[in-house]
Amino acid sequence: xxxxxxxxxxxxxxxESSVRERIEQLRTEGRRAPxxxxxxxxxxxxxxxxxxxxxxxxxxxxIDATIHALPEDTTDVALTxxxxxxxxDNGVDGILLQLPLPASLQETAFIExxxxxxxxxxxxxxxxxxxxxxxxxxxPCTSRGIIHLLKWIGETFYGRHxxxxxxxxxxxxxxxxxxxxxxxxxTICHRxxxxxxxxxxxxxxxxxxxxxxxxxxxxxIRPGATVIDVGINREKDHLVGDVDFERARERAQxxxxxxxxxxxxxxxxxxxxxxxxxxxxxxRVSAY
Length: 288
Ligand code: NAP
Hints:
The protein has helices spanning 8-28, 45-61, 76-88, 107-113, 125-132, 141-152, 172-182, 196-201, 245-248, 262-281, and strands spanning 4-5, 35-41, 64-70, 94-97, 161-165, 185-189, 205-208, 226-229, 233-235, 238-240, 254-255. By secondary structure, the protein is α/β, with parallel strands linked by helices. The protein folds into two domains: 29-115, Leucine Dehydrogenase, chain A, domain 1 (Rossmann fold); 141-263, NAD(P)-binding Rossmann-like Domain (Rossmann fold). It has a six-stranded parallel sheet with strand order 1-11-8-7-5-6. It has a three-stranded parallel sheet with strand order 3-2-4, with helices on both faces. A two-stranded antiparallel sheet has the order 9-10. It is globular and about 50 Å long. The chain starts with a strand and ends in a 7-residue tail after the last helix. The relative contact order is 0.17. The structure holds NADP nicotinamide-adenine-dinucleotide phosphate (NAP). NADP nicotinamide-adenine-dinucleotide phosphate is lined by residues 142, 165-168, 170-172, 189-193, 196, 209-211, 230-233, 262-263, 266. NADP nicotinamide-adenine-dinucleotide phosphate (NAP) binds next to helix 10.
């Protein structure tokens, strides 16, 4: 069997089109464009690329994006004050704090300072808690994007065993909650999991989000499984995922490429979350 590639880029473009059309509709009704404030701190090079990609994507769909680029030595007080100002600003619908922050700044404290109704990254404990309680508000972008990919290929979730490798607040944990919400039976693996291979071998749906190139050998993939590779690892001049792609695609039924699989969906979901936040703030839908 050679797996069908899940073309995240093409599916993300469909979402972008839908977001763009809905924003055009708002504009024709005389309303302002949704607006996103992105906070970037320091010189972390990959963050610079991610922020620029997000800015361009906002431009494509008509979201008004403002980048707040702060120096590496930004203080707790300065960052807290900026987030509070953005929380208060009625012209701002979404706030995105680009991670990682410099080591001197405590990520969780700042995420918790963001107003949950503007938390378009879905990282605030209120939004993670709502997902856990089966009443989702703004949902973390990567895991929401993966659910969209899985539904797109016709995944039904019921009676299926999903294995998530990686348990970070950003990807693995919300992914597990999303899969549970969708109706799958979920196993979560992390650094202290014994015999990772035996868990991976039982996965109908495998999602890997660790950040270690080829952590999962292709031979571990259950024949006919769906493989979602979230990992982004730079090797010389190209990117590879966390799964041994070439061997895995001989066993899986569906597989995401790296790049061009999950990454574009994360950005598309940020756009959709920003639109949702803007609509909710104007009372159009009841996200809160
Ligand atoms: P992270 O915060 O470093 O978390 C990695 C997770 O993997 C942790 O839960 C860690 O366990 C677990 N882990 C480490 N070694 C392991 C092992 N040997 N076996 C099983 N689990 C292990 O990373 P992240 O932010 O979740 O990102 C993971 C990867 O996804 C990175 O490559 C990142 O670049 C990529 N990513 C891609 C997108 C996208 O849009 N495509 C979005 C976000 C992230 P502990 O919890 O025990 O430490």
